[in-house]
Amino acid sequence: MEIWKEFEHNEITHSAAHYLMTINKLIDDLGYARVSDVARSLSITPGSASIMLKSLKEKGFLVEDKNRFLRLSEPGDRLAHSIKSHRHIMITFFRDVLHINPEQAEIDACKIEHLISTETGEHLLWFLQFLMCGDEHAKAFLERYWASKDKLCNLTSCPVCDKAGECLLVQLEPHEDGLTD
Amino acid sequence: MEIWKEFEHNEITHSAAHYLMTINKLIDDLGYARVSDVARSLSITPGSASIMLKSLKEKGFLVEDKNRFLRLSEPGDRLAHSIKSHRHIMITFFRDVLHINPEQAEIDACKIEHLISTETGEHLLWFLQFLMCGDEHAKAFLERYWASKDKLCNLTSCPVCDKAGECLLVQLEPHEDGLTD
DNA sequence: AATAAATGTTTGGCTACCCAAACTTTCTGT
DNA sequence: ACAGAAAGTTTGGGTAGCCAAACATTTATT
């Protein structure tokens, strides 16, 4: 399978992920979650919710008791938790490290939270932990990065090789005196 | 509009983005791009390609000459270039900074390349530029990060507050002695 | 020029997800 | 108990994108 077709092959769709997360949120906030509560919370019609929730039940992500109260199954809860974690990690990185405006950070994180792999989520978490847990080198790096950010944002030539003109992206290729790992 | 519904509201869909990028690639490689070339290159049927390419023409992202050769319009090319840039930035960050395995880095980058905002793409580029352009603090930070990564990966308690047990994610909340920006 | 091959388009069917509206079931208050 | 409200489901329609297969057109070969 070509890489670009992997886009359709995820553990769960964006929409379904939000159904699951909403059920947990409703149980936290209201104490229960029924079809109509989920529909209201997501601003979709009860008809759409009914169909999607039926399919999520059939897939084993949630269960319904005799009184039509919904709750997540163990796999459903694991999935919802994983996606919430990814969102939290992405928002933190975008907002607190990159200094992207918080609204945009939330939007971008929400779009990709269900798409990034467990591996990428974990590595990002470790990276953030190191960045934010008081290590002197991390502190110094971040301070210097933020301080030089405004200058960097206006760069039209590479700060290392000083070549101008071309797309700034070429600067991501390793330089002789840069870090190549 | 709630944030979660923004997922559907992008400049271009994942599929359409790859049609555009494929046309540029074909013109580079073959010198031209026709409907069937695009279909072959993307491993989809000519029928599907015909329909999608018609809609991309109608949207003004590409043009077709009298001999049915396709090329991107200015807006189409701008979009394709932006998405390729995002992919390049994400792959570089995932692979060369986070040390995610290259295949997974490519898959994840491909899934999100068309979803991240211009703002997020730019900030990530600046971050990478600072990380990779030879600054001493960046070098020291990366070396120390990579060196401590194995230890960090196995953490079950926070290296700052030393609290164990809970989800590691809580460690992303700012600590008293950590960096809070 | 005539046939064969390559190319392009249309049609009907599928999945996913949404809406509106009709319909059914269950709960609630008098 | 029974009417009305609330909750849940079904049906028909729409978008996006894929496939298979039939059909139409264009290009190439003899």
What report would you give on this structure?
Chain A is built from seven helices and two strands. With 181 residues, chain A is mainly alpha-helical. The first copy, chain A, folds into two domains: 8-78, Winged helix-like DNA-binding domain superfamily/Winged helix DNA-binding domain (Arc Repressor Mutant, subunit A, Orthogonal Bundle); 85-141, Orthogonal Bundle (Diphtheria Toxin Repressor, domain 2), CATH 1.10.60. In chain A, 38% of the residues are buried. In chain A, a hairpin with a 5-residue loop joins strand 1 (62-64) and strand 2 (70-72). Chain A has a two-stranded antiparallel sheet. In chain A, helix 2 crosses helix 3 (46-58) and helix 4 packs antiparallel against helix 5 (102-112). The interface between A and B is large, with 77 and 77 residues.
